[in-house]
Structures are given as C-alpha cells and as structure tokens.
Amino acid sequence: MEQTQENRTRVLVVDDQYLIAMDLVCMLEQLGYSPVGPAASVAEALATLARDGADLALLDETLAGESALPVAVRLQEQGIPFVVVSGHVRSISGNPLLQAARRLEKPLTNKRLAETLMLLRDLRK
C-alpha cells in the first residue's frame, strides 16, 4: 500500500544553512518522509512546531550563533524524538540534553539518515 502525504512520518527540519536544510528536505522526501519546515532559527522552529507539529526532528545544534536548546527542550516536552545534525562529532553545548542526544555528523548520506530515522521512529512507538 502506498503512503499518502497524510500518513507519512512528519520530520521537522531545523538548520540555519539554507542549502543543507533543502538537502535534508530532499533526502527526507526520497526516503518517504514528510518534511516539516525547514526552520532557520529558534523562533521559527518553535512556531513551525506549534503550527504544524512533527513526529521526529532533525536539529542543528546552533542556529545563527544561537543555541538550539529551547527547541530541544520543547521537543523533549512533547515526546518528539530528535537527532542533532552537526558538523561537530561532539556537542559544542555545555547542556546535558544536547550532549546526550543522538548525533549525525554532516555531511549525511541517505543510508545513515534512513537508519537513524528508523531508530527514532522506534522510540516514538
């Protein structure tokens, strides 16, 4: 049975680098997910999440020099599994929530993204 847009897993994309965000959106679509966003700032991410909701999230650790911690906290409060997508192997934040989060190092491959999203979906069940 083919998935319709309505029953696809919605993935919030939060990244302040436009080309990376659009690449993530394309990868998600190719993998059969429904991208939400992208959002380029903390305020935009929180507004998008409140307006559109999400099942999972891909979160850059810093957004235009600002910590993405408020977004991570909101995702955790709503029980939405997320992964930090970063150019850094380790967290550059001193916050335990971001330090403990599952991480994907940029640049991503479809295979690594697909595997990680399947793990996140399992956490959501």
Automatic annotation (TrEMBL):
> What does the UniProt keyword field contain?
Phosphoprotein
* TM region(s), chain numbering: none
* PTM-bearing positions, type 4-aspartylphosphate: 60
| Residues spanning the signal sequence | none
Q: Write down the InterPro entries for this protein, in alphabetical order.
A: Bact_response_regulator, CheY-like_superfamily, Sig_transdc_resp-reg_receiver
Q: Which residues form the Response regulatory domain?
A: 10-121
Q: Which GO terms describe its biological process?
A: phosphorelay signal transduction system
Nucleotide-binding is among the record's keywords: no
What is the protein's given name? Response regulator receiver domain-containing protein
Which organism is this entry from? Answer: Cereibacter azotoformans
